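Methods — Computational structure assignment.
A single polypeptide chain was analysed. Its primary sequence is given first, followed by the predicted tertiary structure written as structure tokens.
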Amino acid sequence: MNIKVSLDRSIEKNYFYTEGTQNENNVTKLYIEVPKEYENYGKRIVFITDEGNFWDYINNNEYTIKNNITKYEKVIAYIWLTKEDNDFRSKEFELNFYNNTNADDVIPTPSEIDGFAALIDTLELEIQKVKDLDTTLTNNEIERDKKVKEAISNIKNLTDEYNKNAEEKTKEFNENAKSKMEELNNIVAEIDSINFTLDEETGALYVIKQKSN
């Protein structure tokens, strides 16, 4: 395609509506003619796109469009001539490309398709296993929390009783507390091997050990 730049900055083009097809690379060539007064200037072409403005050098009055420009269906361009402090710019003009969808992947073979299907089936089974495991763990956690809360409530009741009758029932409380402590440890050990201890002065309950299966 020939592009002629006039002194009044206007552009003359001898081309059809489109300059090629989207995503083509190094097949569409522009032949640029500038006024003789600017022939010895440095020549560049500027592209204005949706993603920004870019320029590239024109060599020997020719420029081959690359796919970093043809990927757009339409771009605006102009010719930029410079020499020292002199700066000449043409009017903007359109470059249009036939619509085209780029293809990144090859068609999978029948064996690859079968392999994908088998992989999907395997993943679905694994996902279901995880879902079932999550449900089981949730039920165990609910039951564990229920039993632990019941045991702590029992010990708290003993602690309240102890505070009311500290001097008279110290011995009785200690014996009962130890019994309840054993009961609590037995309950929790059945679930996930957590041991507790009771601070007899403050009534605070502490986790002292947790074992992994």
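Note: Helices lie at 67-70, 110-164, 170-192.
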